[in-house]
Write a structure and sequence with these properties.
Helix content is about 35%, strand content about 30%. With about 120 residues, it is of the alpha/beta class. The protein has one domain: 3-Layer(aba) Sandwich (Trna Endonuclease, Chain: A, domain 1). A hairpin with a 5-residue loop joins strand 1 and strand 2. The termini are far apart.
Length: about 120
């Protein structure tokens, strides 16, 4: 707990592994996105039907969740939706929580433990 930065990196690695397992179970794929300006997304879930979703992984805390939401909105606004279509969902995957919910800005907050449900 003395090094939350490292703990966050470990959580992100395990969370992306879980996303890959669940996505592959429905014939999907997970990738990482980073552009030349440093804008990145921890996970992009691509489904076979062409839909996709953007995921930021945050260990928790309101400040980190807001940072993730800001990043998702910024990335979504830069997507050429004529070529790619609009993302099916924007999600912040967190370490803690009892249930998933959708914020008023349409971003899902999902605790990792609820992915199986």
């Amino acid at each position: 707990m003395g090094d939350l930065s490292t703990l966050g990196l470990l959580f992100e690695t395990l969370a992306v592994r879980d996303l890959r397992v669940f996505a592959e179970a429905i014939d999907g794929k997970v990738s990482h996105y980073r552009d030349r300006n440093g804008l990145e997304c921890d996970a992009v879930i691509h489904l076979r039907n062409g839909t996709y979703g953007l995921v930021e992984v945050k260990i928790g805390g309101e400040t980190l969740i807001e940072e993730g939401a800001k990043n998702l909105k910024k990335l979504a606004s830069k997507i050429n939706t004529d070529n790619m279509g609009k993302p099916a969902f924007l999600m912040i995957l967190t370490a803690l929580g009892s249930y998933a919910f959708k914020r008023s800005d349409d971003i899902w907050i999902v605790p990792i433990g609820s992915l199986k449900d």
